[in-house]
Design a protein that fits this description.
The complex is a heterodimer of chains A (329) and B (308). Chain A is built from nine helices and three strands; from the N terminus they run αααααααααβββ. Chain A is mainly α and 329 residues long. In chain B, helix 5 packs parallel to helix 7 and helix 6 runs parallel beside helix 9. Classes of the chains: A mainly alpha (329), B mainly alpha (308).
């Protein structure tokens, strides 16, 4: 429309666009993973039958990631020609974001430690999430360091890294969330057999798809380019990667079949199939139009799994008489 | 007869009405700048202006056809609220402007999965092309467009998926009946279908080869597809802003009331909202105020059993 803020031919500034873009978009990608990390913290204790380790630290680390994530945008632009004095502070803030993220990972490990781990489909996806997100985080540290980043910028290393963070931080947790809350939403259980097959195909396919990309990136393969020189010896990892991609697609196909089958013909779900404690499991599956007949009353911690006599919430029976029903311990 | 009734049912869906109104509006909107330019003595056709004005007019017509403004118009004209918490027949409400947070959550979630499937197919096509050196199945321009669209559509799918989980679960988890502003909530979902339409249209309007980041100077010189993608991006952004206003507004009412009147019985909060447009909410929407813990990460999340 003839605006010229960013068009160098008309006196605009292309670097300004990149600053504005990443000042918005880097916090945005942290917004993408925070709900996924929340799903992990929500689902994990129930399938370990143990309270979430360090609840306060996990909650605070979310705030830490949100605050820290707003101050790291320059790390996308180390190779773009930004001011040198801006590079080191951006590098330091980038490395600092690893601290609250590490808090979460250690809290999850401590939650699983000595727990009664139940390997149902939501839990399998949560376990994959933790491993994939951890690798995504660790492979992010090298490119947060300015001299290494200059070498890695715009290579397949970056592609592999951000797919690890997004799959570990959103896609796998979202799958866990769908398997976990599908019975609440539809009133039917989501098939466990196909679910485990989906998990196996997608997890294996994921690693086959993205691990070769780290190798490709280190060997100089550039992203966003439609072709590569057959003389570079990059064929095999590219072929393996394509096979992995089709395996992930097969997993998703199984998932969609499972969704449709279970939504129409799945076994009826009880109100609380996972013996969870939070309020949504006090409503029927699916919940009625207005969710609760009377207001639920919160009397205890949400993740006190395995603690004798611990109750999170009470709800009045319909009609609001004094009698209260308990959620599963 | 049955076929006729089914056809009537489908035509009466908000989505269908909105799509028809939106397409007509987009056509008229594309012509408007041409008229103005002719009057100013400029050459009539400018694709940038035509697409932008066409999208804006089309969007407004689509929302009107959908019935998004019905509740607000009734309030503006001081007509009595039509209180219909009665669910319309099963599947139809999922294709219409419905204000129940659970319906909106499912709408978001299904839309997210559909976008994810399309964007996944784009990625699969790209990987297939890269399995061997040389170009086998497409030209470099198509490859770049597919990879760029894969990026931006997956990001949209993630955002929309988060909105889906948030909409469905947050009111249930805090023991509320619905979101603070159910109409705004529904509106924020219905920005998404036209955004998806624009993204798919951009593939057939020259595409764009910048990657999802749309860096200039490449994006300044990109074909029309780039502009369609950016318009779609604004719509998704508008939707998220509306959605987060809703979630942000959810908490203060609770805390306010807990301070004013600690107790377990549901208390309507209508008078709290006076001055904001929250006060047009019918009584059935008013959520109960009660002691609660916020399960994860919300403001005030301590051990979940603290009473303010």
């Amino acid at each position: 429309m003839g605006m010229r803020f960013f068009d160098p031919d008309k006196g605009g500034n292309v670097i300004l666009y990149q600053h504005l873009f990443w000042f918005y978009s880097h916090p945005a990608v942290y917004i993408f993973v925070l709900p996924g990390l929340g799903v992990i913290s929500e689902v994990l204790p129930g399938f370990c039958r143990k309270p979430l380790f360090g609840y306060r630290a996990v909650a605070l680390s979310s705030l830490g990631i949100a605050a820290g994530g707003a101050l790291v945008w320059g790390h996308h632009m180390f190779a773009a020609g930004i001011e040198e004095w801006l590079m080191v502070p951006m590098m330091v803030t980038t490395l600092l974001v690893a601290v609250p993220t590490g808090v979460k990972v250690f809290s999850w490990l401590a939650t699983m430690w000595m727990g009664k781990i139940q390997l149902e489909t939501p839990m399998l996806f949560v376990l994959t999430s933790i491993i994939v997100f951890l690798i995504g985080g660790l492979t992010g540290v090298p490119q947060g360091i300015v001299p290494v980043d200059l070498y890695l910028t715009d290579t397949y290393w970056i592609v592999a890294h951000f797919h690890f963070t997004l799959f570990g931080g959103f896609v796998f947790p979202a799958m866990a969330a769908i398997y976990f809350w599908f019975p609440k939403v539809t009133g039917r259980l989501l098939g466990e057999g196909l679910g485990k097959l989906h998990w196996a195909a997608m997890s294996a396919g994921f690693f086959i798809l993205y691990v070769p990309m780290f190798w490709l990136g280190l060997h100089g393969m550039r992203r966003r380019i439609a072709d590569y020189d057959p003389g570079l010896g990059l064929q095999l990892p590219n072929l393996v990667s394509a096979i992995g991609a089709f395996l992930v697609a097969l997993g998703m196909l199984i998932f969609f079949i499972n969704l449709v089958r279970s939504a129409t013909r799945g076994a009826p779900a009880p109100a609380n199939p996972w013996r969870s404690r939070t309020l949504e499991w006090l409503a029927s599956s699916p919940p009625p139009e207005d969710n609760f007949p009377t207001a639920p009353r919160v009397v205890g911690p949400p993740y006190g799994y395995g603690i004798p006599g611990s109750v999170h919430a009470l709800i009045g029976t319909s009609g609001g008489s004094g009698k209260m029903e308990k959620a599963d311990p | 007869m049955i076929a006729l009734r089914q056809a009537q049912d489908i035509i009466s869906l908000g989505l269908v009405k909105g799509a028809v109104a939106g397409l007509i509006g987009a056509g008229v909107g594309r012509g408007l700048p041409a008229g103005v330019r002719l009057a100013m003595g400029l050459p009539a056709w400018d694709p940038g202006w035509a697409v932008t004005v066409g999208t804006l007019v089309g969007l407004l017509c689509y929302l009107w056809g959908l019935g998004a403004f019905r509740g607000w118009m009734r309030w503006v004209l001081a007509q009595p609220e039509k209180e219909s918490r009665e669910p319309t027949s099963g599947w139809a409400r999922y294709f219409s402007f419905d204000t129940n947070h659970k319906v909106i959550g499912v709408q978001y979630m299904v839309t997210s999965l559909l976008i994810m499937a399309v964007a996944g197919v784009y990625a699969l096509m790209g990987r297939l092309e890269m399995a061997q050196p040389g170009m086998q199945y497409m030209g470099p321009g198509t490859y770049n467009t597919l990879v760029s669209l894969h990026g931006i559509m997956m990001l949209a799918a993630v955002l929309i998926g988060i909105s889906g989980m948030m909409n469905y679960l947050v009111p249930l988890m805090i023991g509320a009946r619905d979101m603070a502003f159910p109409h705004l909530n529904a509106l924020s979902y219905w920005f998404i279908p036209p955004a998806v339409f624009l993204l798919i249209l951009s593939l057939f309007s020259g595409g764009f080869d910048t990657g999802w980041t749309a860096y200039p100077p490449l994006s300044v010189r990109a074909p029309l597809g780039m502009q369609l993608m950016l318009l779609a991006f604004y719509l998704v952004g508008l939707s998220s802003i509306a959605g987060s206003i809703n979630c942000g507004e959810h908490q203060p009412h609770h805390h306010h009331f807990q301070a004013a009147r600690p107790g377990d019985e549901p208390v309507p909060h209508a008078h709290l909202c006076l001055g904001s447009y929250g006060h047009r909410l019918p009584p059935a929407y008013l959520h109960p105020v009660h002691r609660h813990g916020i399960p994860h990460g919300g403001p005030g999340a301590g051990d979940g059993h603290e009473i303010l």
